[in-house]
Amino acid sequence: MPKKLPQAEMPAADYAFYGLVWAGTVMTERVDRALVKAHDLPVSWFEVMLWLVSSPEPVPASVLGNSTMLSRSQVSRVVDALQARGLVARTPSERDARSVEVSLTAEGRRVFEQADATRREVLAPVFTDLLDEHDIEALGTVWRKLKAEKEKLGREPATGSTRPRR
Question: From CA 35, how far away is CA 38, in angstroms rounded?
Answer without folding.
Answer: 5
